[in-house]
Amino acid sequence: MNEAHVTVIGWAAADPTYVVTSGGVPFLSLRIGCTPRRYDRQTGEWADHETQFMNAVCRRALADNVQASQIGRGTPVIVTGRLRVRQYERDGQWRTAVDIEASTLGHDLTRGTAEFTPTRRSALTGQEPRAA
């Protein structure tokens, strides 16, 4: 397993795009932005650096759960997953896109509160969920 796994703390830069593929698989894409801040010792102030953008790609149950979680533009989020960097050509220019194939995605609870509602998966596993 020589893949790059990353955790990004940022905000939703746009509302998520949710679709169900022709094969019946839920798919959600969410643009994430993060702006690094550094302390400038000369001025004694914090300074924002260039904002970085990437796409969080969610599939199956994660896509359904993110869609149901009221994550929209401006929502503080944390995403963890496999890093994918790809190049593509558009209008005669090569571009680079950074994607995170998300294994988890949720609200950043250092910036607010959330209410958790567990999903029932007994139909998939044939087992009853554990009591809390």
TrEMBL record:
InterPro entries: NA-bd_OB-fold (IPR012340), Primosome_PriB/ssb (IPR000424), ssDNA-bd (IPR011344). The keyword DNA-binding applies. The keyword DNA-binding applies. One of its GO terms (molecular function) is DNA binding. Keywords: DNA-binding. It holds the Pfam family SSB. This is Single-stranded DNA-binding protein. It comes from Actinomadura algeriensis.
